[in-house]
Amino acid sequence: MVGVYFSGTGNSKLILEVFCGEYDKNVKVFSIEDKQAVDAIKNNDMLVFSYPVYYSTVPKILRDFVENNSSLWKGKKVFIIATMGLFSGDGAGMLGRKLKKYGAYVVGGLHVTMPDCICDVPLLKHSLEKNRATVLKAKHKARISARLLKTGKPTKDGLGTFSRMAGFFGQRLYFGHHTGDYSSKLKINADKCVGCGKCASVCPMKNISIENGIAVQHDKCTMCYRCINRCPKQAITLIGKKVVVQGTIDKYI
Q1: Average pLDDT estimate for 211-228
Q2: Phi, then psi, of 79 in degrees rounded to 5
Q3: pTM confidence score
């Protein structure tokens, strides 16, 4: 087994590490940004994917990874973990159907609620104590799911017909257009930006550069919220107009 993840603020990485560690402490995990990820996938028949869902669908960067490596998935057994702030319907099912298209066999799925990473919108914001409790609950759920997979009774979150309908009518029907392609909506406040370069260094798409001492975005944002949550001057927004509270997983563990 090998774990593969995409993570914006660390939620999906943490849950994958907990899940794989419970299943077998020797299981290694790789980010899709890691050059070793493809070789690790080639050399393992059982894969565990973990990622955050956006509007009940898969981040564009992960969809591209799957499509660009379409020959890797044939014959692979896949378990899918989807992390979310509140609801996704068929978050795991969305990736599952794409992998099946390329010959993979989806053995199970897990949906896990984690602290919300959309830091420029007041909705779903909670106290530090509540977010820490949410993470503890999520880790416990991941461990139970890993044990069930070991016994041949994997959880099936997000994989059924009802889940697919819930995902479509609950979010994708209204908001799915936001995730069809990379976003050009990232906003950088030039008056606040000090050109430190932290946003550029963490962006998985290399979408941000520093030009004349100011951060500039290049219309290829995958909506992971890394830069927004890490900007020391809170100079970056995407959906909202100002940063409400920043949060990465290290605050909650």
Answers
A1: 96
A2: -110, 135
A3: 0.95
